[in-house]
Write a structure and sequence with these properties.
Layout: H1 2-49, H2 64-74, E1 79-84, E2 87-93, H3 98-109, E3 120-122, E4 126-129, H4 135-144, E5 163-166, E6 183-186, E7 200-207, H5 209-216, E8 233-236
Antiparallel strand pairs: 1-2, 1-8, 2-7, 3-4, 4-6, 5-6, 5-7
Helix pairs in contact: 2-3
Length: 238
């Protein structure tokens, strides 16, 4: 009788021990899985909140020239295409106006000009582009930075018909510092030579002067703004 009771007692203790082990095992199996999910969730949130470094670099009057000094050495492209509803204008940028060439290539690669307009047309003189009243254009400028470029007028380039040049800033500007986001193309024939020495000619139209002429013939208001928006896209010609 005693022997039977001892066997039952040992069996009961063994069953209790196994149940405790199973309970502990199930508990341990659940904990790591939950912990891993929490860690993955935390990691995802960290990745989402991490700032995009490609848009964190802002140009200003202090760093623009050093930046473009390095940029022009690595980015040698010098041909761009301005696409409009009237057709394409192909432009070759001068290699020896390095800061202005680099600036135009940089803005083109950033997609700045896409969606901007030829916002000023002076019949028989110039067409000017690179701005618009769209919120997107202002937002792009804020993301790129606020800076001006010094004139580079000693290379001997004249404002012949078809030359692309950079206007000076609208702020009080005795040194004719250039507004980097805008440009104008001379439509006047044979040229607008009174601009020589004051504005930086940094390229020329190599195809599409008929398009320049069409744009220059559009009706404008008393502010020299076209009555119908003339949008553009600008791309690098490989």
């Amino acid at each position: 009788m005693l022997k039977t009771k001892l066997i039952i007692l040992f069996l009961g203790l063994g069953l209790l021990f196994n149940q405790c082990q199973d309970s502990s095992k199930k508990s341990n199996e659940n904990k790591p899985k939950k912990k891993i999910e929490e860690n993955l969730s935390s990691k995802k949130d960290t990745l989402k909140s991490k700032p995009d470094k490609s848009t964190s670099f802002l140009l200003n009057d202090q760093n623009a020239i050093p930046f473009f000094f390095d940029y022009q050495k690595k980015h040698l492209e010098n041909r761009v295409r301005i696409s409009t509803r009237f057709g394409d204008i192909d432009i070759e940028l001068y290699q020896n106006t390095p800061y202005h060439r680099a600036n135009f290539i940089y803005l083109t690669k950033k997609g700045y000009f896409n969606g901007s307009t030829f916002h000023r047309v002076v019949p028989g003189f110039i067409i000017q582009g690179g701005n618009s009243d769209r919120v997107e254009t202002s937002q792009k400028r804020r993301e790129i930075g606020k800076y001006l470029l010094p004139p580079d007028t000693r290379k001997g380039y004249k404002h012949h018909r078809g030359v692309i040049s950079m206007p000076s800033s609208e702020i009080e500007n005795p040194h004719k510092l250039a507004s980097p986001y805008e440009f104008f193309i001379v439509q006047q024939s044979p040229g607008a030579y009174h601009l020589d020495g004051s504005y930086t000619a940094f390229g020329k139209v190599i195809r599409g002067m008929d398009v320049v002429d069409k744009i220059n013939q559009q009706k404008v208001d008393d502010r020299e703004a076209p009555l119908t928006n003339i949008h553009m896209d600008v791309s690098i010609i490989e």
